[in-house]
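Task 17 of the worksheet. Students: predict the tertiary structure of the chain below and write it out as structure tokens. Keep your answer in the requested format; marks are given for formatting as well as content.
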Amino acid sequence: MTVQQSGVGGAPPPAALAAPGAAGTTTRTVAEVDQPPSRIIARVVFLIGLGIATVIFVFPFIWLLSASLKSRSDVFSNQLFSMPLHFENYANVFTIAPVANWFVNSIIVSILAAVTVTISSALVAFGFAYFRFPFRNVLFGLVLASMMLPGAVLMIPNFLIWNALGQVDSPMFTPLWASNLFGSAFYIFMLRQFFMGLPRELFEAARVDGAGYPRMFWSVAAPLTKAALIVVLIFELKASWTDLVKPLIFIHDVNLFTLPRGLQYLIALFDPQAGGEGQFQLVMAASVIITLPMIVIFFLAQRYFIEGIATTGSKG
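Model answer:
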């Protein structure tokens, strides 16, 4: 009598089920192994170059971090990390200067500047992309031409205007962000390209459904260009967070300093040539405090950042 081996419920035996998969796995493995030597060498060279570039870009921050944990006498030594590590440098920074106030001030200024310039630039860019009106291209050219003006040319007029309005040393930090209410030429150009990549039929369909222009912007254009809007937000957030020129001109009260202005204050305070004690390990600690938030924000938003840079505004 012949006994037929089978699986549960008459199913094929496990060996029969595993055989095709195993063969397929073997085929794929062989195909992966049989790569041309030139391709393998190119990949190895690429990975080595990527590793070298990573070290070059990351090393300055690693050095900054190590210097912030050194003593005053070892802060500029060639040794990367010297024991013991002086974590008290960070506590001392908050003791000798109102760094907590500076941190809050920077958050307020950066958020206000980023949100206002993103919304205002998006509205202007949508107008240039959607509406058809006489001299549209001429006006857009004038907007782009404003990018050719050096920032130094506008410093004195801006100071005279804000000083006449009584906004120098304002607790609302008005001179540091209010100009963003009028948009930015670069961001307008960037967002216009995204809006022009959207199918016009989407807006015509919204018009048929009774949507007005504000509804078309907030419900159609903005969601489809979310990645681009986030890129603009990140760009301006970083620019405002690291800006020194505006706080240097408009803010003179120590308690109203932003972090970059406060860092410049600490450098002048500890400069040995100006009678300082040369405690640059505290300056390094303050620099780490300034740098870390931007690193965290980039990692949290890098998916939108890369998508916004890589796409053209069309969602297919």
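Marker's comment: DSSP finds 14 helices and no strands in the chain. The first helix runs from residue 14 to 33.
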